[in-house]
Amino acid sequence: MNSIYNIVSDLCSLVIKSCTEDFFVKYSCISESEKTRINVLVRSHVDGLFLSDNQVAQLSEDDFTDSFFANLENLIADFTSNNDFFAIVRLVQILDESLANLLKIKIAEFQEDDFSVVLNTNRETTGIGLLPRCSCIWERKHRLSHSYNRMDNFLFNMLLMENSILGELIDKHFFIKSNLFTDFSKKRALKIAATPLRLEREFDVQPYDEDKVQYFRISYTKDSFNADNELIWSKILTAARNKSDIIVFPEMLGNPDMVAFISQKLKELSPQERETIPSLIILPSFWEKNRNTVTILDKYGEVICRQSKQNPFRVEQNGTGYLEGILSSLVVNIFHFEGIGRIAILICKDFLTTKYMEQLMRCFKLTLIIVPSFSTGSYDFRQSFDLCAHDDCNVVWINTCAALEKGKESNFKNIGYIRKRISRNDDEAQRLSKMPICEGAFSGHCAHDCLYYETINGV
Question: Is the pTM of this model over 0.70?
Answer without folding.
Answer: yes
